[in-house]
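[job 4471] stage=fold_predict status=RUNNING
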Amino acid sequence: MLGLEHRFSRQSAGAPPALDIASLAIVPGRLTVIRGPSGSGKTTLLYVLSGLIKPSAGQVRWSGLDIAALGETERDRWRRRNAGFVFQSFNLMEELNPLGNVTLAAYFSAWTDRIVRERAIALLERFGIANEPRRVDTYSRGEQQRVALARALVFDPPILFADEPTASLDAGNSIQLCDDFRRLASEGRTIVAVSHDPLLIAAADIVVALDHGRISDGETLP
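[job 4471] inference complete, writing structure tokens
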């Protein structure tokens, strides 16, 4: 799927690259978790995989398309069509209710408001979030992360990227999110998550261990 090297522009001459990966395959319809110590390059790899960062060298191929060869505008377009994102900090609009948060992206989409609203309500129901008018910041952290997950899926992207999605959750909500990820993968969605959470690592179909920007012990299938 990819072979890449990435250096940050401010790195000193002769310093090793932030990422140096000869080969890595992301299996469609599986939950892949990238683990490793702080500073190992996990988030950088996630950003390269999603096209948020352009690697210094190499290829990042999704369904035969090398997104590393695309310009920034083309990568943005690719993400809109193919990728959803879940983050540790939720990044919700606190003054809006859950439905308002999930449908907000409709303003930047060619989808009709009616279709987006119907999908948003269905996703919120799926993840156990009541369609109520109250502000999203009055919901629990676990509920807020599920709102963020619904938002990431509202345009039905084939790929879901998640950066430490359970880091702000307690054990119970972490287990629920892991179960949600497993079900989504079983339905054919490709999920790539960065995490040091043993619960999410145990739930993964594939685990990629990263250390100093390199895959340290290959990929494992639990």
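[job 4471] summary: The first helix runs from residue 42 to 49.
[job 4471] exit 0
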